[in-house]
Design a protein that fits this description.
The chain is an alpha/beta fold and 244 residues long. It has a single domain, classed as 3-Layer(aba) Sandwich (Rossmann fold), CATH 3.40.50.300. It has eight helices and ten strands. It has a six-stranded mixed beta sheet, sandwiched between helices. A four-stranded antiparallel beta sheet has the order 2-1-4-5, with helices on one face. α3 crosses α4, α3 packs parallel to α5 and α5 packs parallel to α6. The protein is globular. The N and C termini lie far apart (41 Å).
Length: 244
């Protein structure tokens, strides 16, 4: 596999004289990987995600995604890069309330003027199990349904990389598990995913690789065998059987 994301000795300092949000971080994510970056608040994981997304620039070092050196392009180029190469899923769904589900999904594709957007949008909704709500407005959906819409929107332009920033943070445990299992299915179909979370159980349960951060540095990088990742419903059933 080829390296899709490469950070080379990246430092990010937001205020002179203050310890950096990132301190000499080097990381490579291969195409097709499902990598979780975890750590407590202030560990630097969200800063790392913002740099990979081209939403921020490093103080020093190099960030490359899909062969593009993000430090070498201007704001207009970065906007096109994010539109064409990156899909975003956040803790909060950021759906426009006055647009239907399908219209929300199609927003990035309309900016790209894709003629096949509606067909792909409906196919994504079908793939995510919510084709029946295409004409509804977000207020009529559950939290889990809204996050699925957000995932469909993130995938509409067939991005090289899906970035997920605490995607279950606004959901209850059961719904969050369902969303994570959906991400696992997308990964199995070939989607590269970079997930940021503070939840160690969530990271080790679903991701194939877990990168741990502390104080702006990577302190551990572990690749998990499939057998180590236990499906959420199995864990829940085991807990119920033992009375936990």
């Amino acid at each position: 596999m080829s390296e899709l994301v490469v950070l080379s000795d990246v430092t990010k300092v937001y205020q002179a004289g203050v310890t950096g949000a990132l301190n000499g971080v080097s990381l490579a994510v291969e195409e097709g990987e499902f990598t979780a970056v975890m750590g407590p608040s202030g560990s630097g994981k969200s800063t790392l995600l913002n740099l990979v997304a081209g939403l921020d620039k490093p103080t020093s070092g190099r960030v490359s995604v899909a062969g593009t050196d993000l430090g070498g392009i201007g704001e207009a180029g970065l906007a096109r890069f994010r539109r064409d190469r990156i899909g975003f899923v956040f803790q909060f769904f950021h759906l426009l309330p006055n647009l239907t589900v399908l219209e929300n999904v199609l927003i990035p594709a309309q900016l790209r003027s894709s003629t096949s957007a509606e067909y792909r949008g409906r196919e994504l909704l079908k793939q995510l199990g919510i084709e029946g709500v295409a004409d509804r407005y977000p207020a009529r959906l559950s939290g889990g349904q809204q996050q699925r819409v957000a995932i469909a929107r993130a995938l509409i332009n067939q991005p090289n990389l899906l970035l997920a920033d605490e995607p279950t943070g606004a959901l209850d445990t059961r719904t969050g598990d369902q969303v994570m299992e959906l991400l696992v299915e997308l990964h199995s179909a070939g989607q590269t995913i970079l997930l940021v979370t503070h939840d160690a159980k969530l990271a080790t349960r679903h991701a194939a690789r877990v990168v741990s951060m502390m104080d702006g540095r990577i302190v551990d990088d572990a690749r998990l065998e499939t057998a180590e990742r236990v499906p959420a419903d199995v864990i829940r059933v085991r807990g119920e059987e033992t009375g936990r």
